[in-house]
Amino acid sequence: MCICFILFLKNIESITKINSVIVPILIVTIIIIGTKNLININFSDIGRNVKENNSLYYIIEAIIYSSYNLILIIPVLINLKKFLKSKKQIITVSIMSTIFVAIISILTFLLLVNVDKNFLEIEMPVVYVVKNKFTNFTYIYGIIILIAIFTTAISVGISFLNNICKSKSKFINIAFLLCIISILVSLIGFANLVKILFPLFGYLGLLQIYFIIKSK
Cα 199 to chain center, whole Å? Predict the structure, then answer.
């Protein structure tokens, strides 16, 4: 809480510097683990633990999940606009981000398809897989995940504060209140928070996308 509060006061520049180091390390780590998994995976066994479902609800869930992430990402992107000076830069960053996310998504899927446990019993499935199948990366990946969660909290927090606070005194007061509330909310647990916020933020995200498209 104390570190979050200090970094909130430092504003967005501090978190961009941290992310410029953490994000590449996270990407490289996932690609290394994913590549090692590709070497050992038996592709004929893919999906043996996956229950088939002929409904199209998974498409709706994919859309809701995307909008769930967008409701967190868009405020951050608004604050990053000063770092991207031209339309060409925006297009380049968008394309590169899409490529990396696609690669990581495929590698993560291949990590998870043969999990030997019910997904509903696992709070963070990728962490479970790394802990049980790639023990050399357990602590490295754990530390990176914790830092990634931390930097995400800072990014979203700063973006929230910048978008609602018009004075420095208000910024400090709400930043302090935000840190205190986060301690109380954290007692709910990560999995429970996702279960509650996933559908709520998902539908709110769709509403946000609608208004953004409408404004154009």
Answer: 16
